[in-house]
Structure formats: structure tokens, C-alpha cells
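Late entry, evening session. Most of the bench is empty. Finally got around to the prediction I had been postponing all week. Sequence below, unchanged from the version circulated by S.P.
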Amino acid sequence: MPRPRKCRKVCRLPDNDGFLPVNVTEGVEPVILNVDEYESLRLIDREGFSQEQCGEYMYIARATVQQIYTSARKKLADALVEGRPLQISGGDYRLCDGKESYCGCGGCHRHRRCQQSEGGTL
């Protein structure tokens, strides 16, 4: 019996949940990038985390990060090379609850303050 999957911590959902090529053909199946795969790309490629740091942040093992990251890069390459739409959804993840003092984008506390100021309670 396999071990149950651990939920991966994600700071926030992406602002865009998909991307379309300029010359997309109707009826082409989109490439589905899971939210946890998106987060691994964001942390490693954009924020400059090592795979070990990414694993600590997402509360998963470095080997798991490597698997997620490899899968994400393959899917991204498929979408780019084949001109297919990219959809970001699903996966085994939990959103950061805003109570943590540190998060990969530096946004857990900042994000919570932004939400408070928009609501006029800051």
C-alpha cells in the first residue's frame, strides 16, 4: 500500500489560471499544470530557491520537489513547443494560512495586511 500524499504548502494561487498561444487551434487539449507544480517553478526559477529550500518551504522532501519540478518543466515545455493552452489547476496543496512568519514570496504577512487595508480594517 503506498504512503498517503502530503499536501504541499502554496503561498497563493497564481493571478492567471491559464495561458493561450496566439494561434491556438480550437479543440486542442490544454496542458494541465498542477498548482503545486506551479509553486515549484515559482520558487526555484523565479525566487531562486534551491530544491532543498523549496522542499523546506513546501513541507516536502527534496526528492519530491525534484519530481514535481521535473514534471512541471516537462508540461511547460510541451505547452510551448506544441502550441497548446496551459491551464493551472488541481494538485495536492494547501494554501498558506497567513499566520506564518516567513513564506517564499515574502507575502504571508504582507498579503494579509494588503487584504486588511483593502477592507479598511488596517
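Two things to note before I forget:
Confidence is low (pLDDT under 50) at residues 107-122.
The first strand starts at residue 8 and ends at 10.
Will write this up properly tomorrow.
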